[in-house]
Amino acid sequence: MTDRIYNFSAGPAVLPLPVLEEVQRDLIALPGVGMSVMEISHRSAPFEAIINAAEANIRTLAGVPDNYKVLFLQGGATTQFSMVPMNLLTEGRTADYIMTGSWATKALKEAKRVGATRETGSTADTGYNRIPTDAELSFTEDAAYVHMTSNNTIEGTEWHQLPQVPDGVPLVSDASSDIFSGPIDVAKHGLIYAGAQKNLGPSGVTLVIIREDLLARSSKSLHTMLNYSVHAENGSLYNTPPAFGVYVLGLVIKWALAQGGLDGIAALNERKGGKLYAELDRTGYWRPTAQKDSRSLMNVTFRLATEDLEKKFIKEATAAGFDGLKGHRDVGGMRASIYNAFPEAGIDALVAFMQEFERVNG
């Protein structure tokens, strides 16, 4: 097998090695089928079994209630920035957006094209380095929905408890970069969406979990492919789905169940994140950017004293087999994305490298 480096990329991100090995083994011909998953019809019995198993395992993994639909869509989370308001922002109502970073800003931009919106809380004044408290949030009475970004990939912050939205107001969560990284109470959400390429599988699939009663808001005048109700009625098969991506996503969900489900995954993520943050806090040489009570277990962002030193660290780390540590272009610095499938051994190796770098350059 080809030697693998440690992939700290924010996405497309690391996939579980057992999943990659199974894909490699069965890529040319699925067992009992005689064709690749990329060649079979999406109307065939083998693919029907694949997509049904993926949905059933998602329901088991996350405890998805029966009154929620699980959809496999395309267009990434960015398309959901538009689909959410197009389907849920009914005339005469306002959508509330909690502003915690770059992706929330982009989601709000698209919603403004559709109807009335309101920023119901923001941490822009501190550079989005924290999650707002409930006391800082002020919701619109009878809002169409409240939108949040559960994990801020660029800024390195994460919600550790859900905002207290008014009773009866659906909570919509962009969970792209921390979905299934720990237990989730689906019933407290109206809609959850996530691009697959961080914790679920390859790019090209978007997972949407939507409460059934909200489907009634999808107007028949909407373009067909942007209508949640149409996709729900057709079991995500109105058009040809991203079959390969759904297949790999299904394997990742099976792998997650084998890790002890979301409780087991949460314990692993807490251990990995704890090791890395402990090193960042150990001497003051490294400078974590997120406030401690808002730190993400998925995207660990940090800086050094100078940009020249940061460039040296990234260059030497890349040469040593640690890829993807350069921070997002909008904020600079460094970012270690350590999603579910990132191996704990990679954290240990990075910590050792950081200690040596500090010894030589400190």
How would you name the CATH homologous superfamily of the largest domain?
A: Type I PLP-dependent aspartate aminotransferase-like (Major domain)
Structural category: alpha/beta
State the helicity in percent bands: 25-40%
Count of separate DSSP helical elements? 9
Supply the CATH architecture of the largest domain. Answer: 3-Layer(aba) Sandwich
Query: Secondary-structure element order, as H and E?
Result: EHHEHEHEEEEEEEHHHEEHEEH
Biggest β-sheet: count, sense, barrel? 7 strands, mixed
Uncertain runs: none
Strand order of the largest sheet: 2-10-9-8-5-3-4
Q: List the domain count as a whole number.
A: 2
Instruction: Note the gap between the termini.
Output: 38 Å
Mind telling me the C-alpha Rg?
21 Å
Q: How would you portray this structure in words?
A:
The protein is an alpha/beta fold and 362 residues long. 35% of the residues lie in helices and 16% in strands. The chain folds into two domains: 18-258, Type I PLP-dependent aspartate aminotransferase-like (Major domain) (Aspartate Aminotransferase, domain 2, 3-Layer(aba) Sandwich), CATH 3.40.640; 260-361, Alpha-Beta Complex (Aspartate Aminotransferase, domain 1). The protein has helices at residues 17-26, 45-62, 76-88, 102-112, 228-233, 243-258, 261-282, 307-319, 344-361; strands at residues 6-7, 68-73, 94-99, 116-122, 145-149, 151-152, 157-158, 171-174, 191-195, 206-211, 287-288, 299-303, 322-323, 334-337. Strands 2-10-9-8-5-3-4 form a seven-stranded mixed beta sheet, sandwiched between helices. A three-stranded antiparallel beta sheet has the order 11-12-14. The protein has a two-stranded parallel sheet with strand order 1-13. Strand 6 and strand 7 (157-158) form a beta hairpin. Helix 7 packs parallel to helix 9. The longest helix is centred in the last third of the chain and has 22 residues, at 261-282. It is globular and about 65 Å long. The chain starts with 5 loop residues before the first strand and ends with a helix. The mean pLDDT is 97.
